[in-house]
Structures are given as C-alpha cells and as structure tokens.
Amino acid sequence: MKKIAIGFAVCVILIMAAVIWMTCSSNDARALNLGTFMILSLTLVVLVWYAYDTNSIARVTRERWMREGVLSTTYSMELIGSKGQPGRTLFRLNNPSPLLVRAKVICNFRLYGESIQADPAYDGRDAWLLFPQQMSQGWFEIDSLLQKKGKNVAAMIAEYTPANRNNQFTMNLELEFWDELGARRKLPARPHYFDFERWVWIPHLTETPESK
Predict the structure, then answer these.
(1) What is the pLDDT at residue 196?
(2) Cβ of 171: how many Cβ atoms within 10 Å?
(3) Which residues touch 126 (CB under 8 Å, ≥6 apart)?
(4) At what angle do helices 29-71 and 2-26 cross, to 10 degrees?
(5) How far is CA 24 from the centre of its chain?
(6) Which of 110, 117, 83 lies closest to 166 in space, CA to CA?
(7) Quick count: other Cβ atoms within 10 Å of Cβ 45?
(8) Distance (Å, rounded) from C-alpha 58 to C-alpha 52?
(9) Rounded CA gap, 180 and 101, in Å?
(10) How far is it, in rounded angstroms, from Cα 110 to Cα 148?
(11) Radius of gyration of the chain (CA)
(12) Does the global pTM surpass 0.85?
C-alpha cells in the first residue's frame, strides 16, 4: 500500500509538471483542464483500491477473530482429595480469545453401562458462559453421581478388578462451542473411565477408525 501511495504521488507531480509546461508554452487552457481530469481520475482509482483493500483487511480480521473464538477454547479436569473421598472433580473451560464464547458440556456418565443423570451444567441442559480471556470452573462429585444408582465410592473400590476397570464408571465427554460471531465447533466425543485403584480419570487417547 505504501508503494501505491508513493507511485500515485509521483504520477500527480509528473502530470502537474507536464500541465504547467504545456500551459506556459502554448497558453492553451485546455491543457489545464485535461490535467485536472487526469488527476481526479487517478484519485478515484486510488480511492476505490483503498476501499477494496480496507474491506479485505476487515474480512481477514473477522475471520481471525472467528477462528480464535472457538478454536482456542480448551478444557481440563483435576481430581482433588485422596482415595476413598467423594472424588470432587474440577472441570475447567478456558477462553483466551477476545470474544464471548458459549459452551455445551455433555458428560454422559455411566455406571456399568447404565446412564446416570448429571446436573444441568454437565448434561447439556445449561450453556456455559466463557467471558473473553477468562477461565470458568465448575465441579462434580463422583460419589454423588454413584449414589443416584445406589452405589458409593467405597463399594466401587471393593468391586474393582483389572477386568472391569474400563467400564465401572465412565464418561463420554461431548463439547460444543459457539461464539458471538456465529462460529461453531463441535469436538469428537472423548471417552474417559475412572480407575478406582489408581484414583484417577483416564482419557482414551485413540479412536477406532470407522469401517468403510
């Protein structure tokens, strides 16, 4: 853009010099009119180019904001407390973008394959509000979820075996984000299971390719 501005200035100076020389040498007023027309025409061309370039910059900026809004959001979980305690799990959603982002969290908890009803923030009934450049944190307790099916942490520890650890208590986490500009992003479901022996949430790191 700087080169265009310099080129335009040089053209205007050359046209003005040519018009002055022609006017002085021939005393013809038409040369002055012609020079004025040429300068105005060049000005119009530059203004049109500037408007196009400004619109392109605005479009690129908007697209960058849209990418930053939903693509930069992340989640994390942290289990606090010792083995045998209620198993409070901190659930965090981080929005480093300058946009307001909303999120839907669906945990899909299951006890030995049987679905467990979670609170609205964790079964998709409520949307999380992620304010710009902030982290939002909630929590749930494993023991409270187990009690909905007549179990508790102590019973699950007693029932643990290496054979059943992958399906004792599981979570198939689904996350969807959308921002104030309308961009949306839905992540693939990510299975987790809770290991009552090691007292830790373990995510599945791979997926089975779909058969074709």
Answers:
(1) 97
(2) 26
(3) 120
(4) 170
(5) 65
(6) 110
(7) 12
(8) 10
(9) 7
(10) 11
(11) 32
(12) no
